[in-house]
Amino acid sequence: MVSVIITTYNRRHFLREAALSVLAQDFSDREVIVIDDGSTDGSEGEVRDLPLRYEWKPNAGISSARNYGIALSGGEYIAFLDVDDLWMRHKLSRQMRAMEEGAAALCYTDEVWIRNGRRLNQKKRHQKYSGHIYEHCLELCLISASSAVIRRHVFEDRGLFDETMPVCEDYDMWLRITSKYPVLFLPEPLITKRGGHEDQLSRQYEAMDRFRVTSLARMIESGQLTDEQKDLTLREIGRKCAILAAGAVKRGKAEEAAYYASFPERIGTPSGR
Fold first, then answer.
1. How confident is the model at residue 122, as a pLDDT?
2. Which of 50, 148, 240, 266 has the lowest tally of Cβ within 10 angstroms?
3. pLDDT in tens, 26-65
4. Is residue 184 located within the same domain as residue 257?
5. Is the pLDDT of residue 198 over 80?
6. Which of 171, 199, 227 delimits the end of a domain?
7. Backbone φ, ψ for residue 91 (5° rounding)
8. Cα–Cα separations (whole angstroms), residue 222 to 89, 154, 163, 216
9. Same domain, residue pair 95 and 7
10. Where is the domain boundary, 199, 219, 239?
């Protein structure tokens, strides 16, 4: 019923614990697929003895790894686990019960945040919601990929992860999904997110909102938004571009500042302006 896709790249020290957290689930109707996106650290040795499918591929990024896993999978539902995160034992059973009872395209859960070994409290801006939550997904990536279970047909309808995006690919996907489908949030911490690693993708790229602006602009250009969604998207583009332009000015990058200052007008303006 569920295909669980674990993605990894040179994270041997995390891999076995992540895989065991899936194999320990009290929901048994699932397959487990590890997609190794070109590791050179001998990661396979950590899980060679475990009942899962291990596939190595040349390095091409997280979106490529997830998409490859989807292509190899056979489940009616798709679930993801980033290798530095962990699942609680009842995660899948709680989500599958909820999804079978309702019509949500995606189910996600609350999470425990650990950074450098210390637990962090989530801020008000990270509050999570059920239903048609597109407007709540505009500011930041509200849904953790490691917590999401998604019906397969949603990818057939809304497309796969964008392999041209080195980061914020999950933000981009949730925009496409939530602009059309209602989702279900389970207010129970069923995953542990571990951060603070030196090699985290978010540490490798400055001004992450530039990738989110690209996604927002694509949503406008898709022609698939309602008038209200379009207005909300244009306003968020304006807000993010103002921040990006101000940051570029501080770094002495006048051309970049001018680009982001003028970008909203090139995309369009919200109604009422």
1. 81
2. 266
3. 999 999 999 999 999 999 999 999 999 999 999 999 999 9
4. no
5. no
6. 199
7. -55, -60
8. 39, 17, 18, 10
9. yes
10. 199
Question: Mind spelling out the 3-state secondary structure of the chain?
Answer: CEEEEEEECCCHHHHHHHHHHHHCCCCCCEEEEEEECCCCCCHHHHCCCCCCEEEECCCCCHHHHHHHHHHHCCCCEEEEEECCEEECCCHHHHHHHHHHHCCCCEEEEEEEEEECCEEECCCHHHCCCCECCHHHHCCCCCCCHHHCEEEHHHHHHHCCCCCCCCCCHHHHHHHHHHCCCCEEEEEEEEEEEEECCCCCHHHHCCCCHHHHHHHHHHHHHHCCCCHHHHHHHHHHHHHHHHHHHHHHHHCCCHHHHHHHHHHHHHHCCCCCC
Total structural domains within the chain: 2
Q: Flag whether pLDDT at 89 surpasses 70.
A: yes
Calculate what percentage of the chain has a pLDDT beyond 70. 95
In this structure, the answer to whether residues 56 and 9 fall within a common structural domain is yes
In a domain, 13, yes or no: yes
* pLDDT tens profile 209-236: 999 999 999 999 999 999 999 999 999 9
Is residue 272, in this structure, part of any structural domain at all? no
**CB-based contacts of 152-157 (< 8 A; 24+ apart in sequence):** 152/75, 152/76, 152/77, 152/78, 154/105, 154/106, 154/181, 155/70, 155/78
Total residue length of the chain: 273
Same domain? For 141 and 232 the reply is no
Query: Does residue 273 sit within a domain?
Result: no
Tell me: do 189 and 76 sit in the same domain: yes
Q: Tell me what pLDDT residue 199 has.
A: 56
Residue 21 lies in domain: 2-199
Q: pTM of the full predicted structure?
A: 0.93
* Whole-number average pLDDT of the chain: 94
